[in-house]
Amino acid sequence: MQRWRSSRWCFVSLVVNLSRMACTSRMEECERVVDVAVVGGGLSGLTVVHRLGSKCSWVLVEGSSRLGGRLKNSESGVDLGGAWIWPEFGQRKIAELLRELNIGTFRQPDDESSTRIAGGAYKAIEELAKKLPQDRIVMNFDVTSCAKEKREQGEDRELVKISSSSGQSVLARRVVFAAPPRILISRVQFDPPLSNSRRRAMEECRTWMAGVTKVALEYDKRVWSLGRACNTGLRGGPAFQVYDGSTHGDKLIALTFFALAPRDLKEEELARLCVEQLRGHWKMMGLQQDSSALQKFKRVTVQRWPEEELISDEIDPQQIHPHPTPFPPLARSDWDGKLLFASTEADLESPGVMEGAVGAALRVCKELGY
After folding, report:
1. Where are the beta strands (DSSP E) in 156-201?
2. Which H or E run includes 186?
3. Residue 30: pLDDT band with limits 50, 70, 90
4. Nearest one of 87, 133, 136 to 108, comparing CA atoms
5. What pTM value is reported for the model?
6. What is the pLDDT of residues 171-207, one digit of tens each?
7. Which domains does the chain carry?
């Protein structure tokens, strides 16, 4: 996977290579004005800037050291975040984006109604990033404030300034927030404040995947019959769902569990408990399947999404919240169209999944006029 340059290198390159720049050597003093600043380098944010292309000046800022948001692969290519799409059930936007990026799909091994992405869902992030100028992407830019800034001179009398915890700042004519609403409202100070109705909507919006830990176990071969690994009713332990996480063409065989896992539970012990749950479920169902081989996994990878502070505020999750439903206040622009919102939770058709991330991005691009 391509290694992304540091935030300092990216920002200096932005200063050198883009026109209309008036900036000192200190990043925090930069007065560059872009047409659009996009906050968040997940699927939605990257789709926005991919669509903007060369139609306007833009910069994308990402608060962490990696792109992808809630999409992530293990080193061997197993999905650790969002994994499924459902084109046959009307999710055409993500399917069209994948075709545009020349990324294939395949049926979920134990559930023909679900579709996965060849190369893992993170493949979409990699392919989008390849098409973008790296000098317009600023990593480790954790936005902590967003304020209107009035000017007495120049063509732009009112701009929006976003600033990071390290003192970096960007001036933009409009800002797109492509990050979880619940995290934004808790971490970013808006001046002037957002309306009470919008604040409530953002505070009450649960972030899908935020409380989930994914446990991926890799095997030399499939030691279960197809259909035996897919279950959403696991009880009596940390896992509540399991599916066949094997990659396209069975190049790598894996079982993947969704779990609510205590922070202090070590990875190997967490994996053992998940396996014991599945074995117990098979026994309870009277399935004639040798389950002892499940214990012989060769590698375990654990992704604890509750520990990702830019994604989750659920330090010790105790329950899985219902899947998000469309909520119009999250999709409305603010500050007379200067603030727009494009996270998957802000989609009005398929919130909380990859289709929603792409849908929200396309809606925002239309609102921007591009």
Report:
1. 158-164, 169-177, 189-191
2. helix 181-187
3. very low
4. 87
5. 0.90
6. 999 999 999 999 999 999 999 999 999 999 999 999 9
7. 1-14+30-208+323-370 (3.50.50.60), 210-320 (3.90.660.10)
